[in-house]
Design brief:
alpha/beta, Rossmann fold, 8-stranded mixed β-sheet, two-stranded antiparallel ribbon, globular
């Protein structure tokens, strides 16, 4: 079930979307949709005539619900899955960080959108920010969550400076049970549902797409201290420029 915080965020994002393109009569592709079709119904309420509500999870159903069609879809395959210039809008919240192949995604959206169509896509927390490890893990009775300081055992930005084994050791040294520490390390570095792309890499993938930028929003918060910034730049995830940006929203036209 979509929680109230996510519901409020979805409402704000759709309100922003319609500032750039009215949805009256539109065919909208929703990516990263929720299982209860709450976001899809919000898009219908905002004027869309048809919403193709998609997710890449294996259990996502293919079914026709009238104005809402649910379809299993890998966002990297939009270009092959839809006819050219067949969509009026493509909409996604908290999805950029999950698409491992942003170049294919952006190219596909450009092909599928009609002239005058709109891409509205958001990602966060992105990999290069303080909580970009995106930890969300249940270990028996213990829950670990990136968005809750009381349940996030990972020190800010250390996922950018430590290896998996170093992260596991760091967590264990600070009191996290060893089995949990190993599971957290695996969740951060090995799970396939994150692209581990930072701020600069996301921008570069978009710039190469040929999409025309209408607006962008960067949600920026704290910067890493200078000594930690130096460690990040020396590591495998350096060169991302903005380590304070937690979320990126891109509004673009084909």
């Amino acid at each position: 079930m979509m929680n109230e915080k996510r519901r409020a965020e979805m409402t704000r994002k759709i309100e922003t979307l319609v500032r750039f393109r009215a949805l009256s009569g539109a065919t909208v592709l929703e990516i990263g949709a929720d299982k209860d079709a709450i976001g899809a119904r919000m898009l219908i309420d905002a004027g869309a005539a048809r919403v193709i509500s998609t997710n890449f999870k294996p259990e996502w159903p293919d079914e026709d619900l009238g104005a809402i069609e649910r379809r299993h879809l890998d966002a990297r395959q939009i270009g092959e899955s839809f006819a050219a210039q067949s969509l009026d809008a493509i909409f996604g919240v908290a999805v950029l960080e999950h698409i491992d192949g942003l170049e294919a995604f952006f190219a596909g959206t450009r092909r599928a959108l009609r002239p005058g169509g709109l891409l509205f896509v958001h990602g966060g927390p992105i990999w290069s920010c303080a909580i970009g490890h995106h930890l969300k893990l249940d270990c028996g009775e213990r829950e670990y969550r990136f968005g809750d300081a009381n349940r996030n055992p990972v020190r800010n930005w250390t996922h950018l400076t430590l290896s998996r084994n170093e992260m596991t050791a760091d967590l264990a040294a600070r009191g996290v049970p060893e089995e949990d520490a190993a599971a957290i390390g695996a969740a951060i570095y090995d799970t396939p549902d994150q692209n581990r792309q930072g701020w600069r890499a996301i921008n570069d993938a978009f710039a190469s797409s040929g999409l025309g930028l209408v607006e962008r929003f960067d949600n920026a918060f704290i910067q890493p201290p200078p000594d930690l910034r130096e460690q990040i730049e020396r590591g495998p995830y350096g060169g991302q420029e903005r380590y304070d940006v937690t979320g990126v929203t891109l509004v673009a036209r084909p």
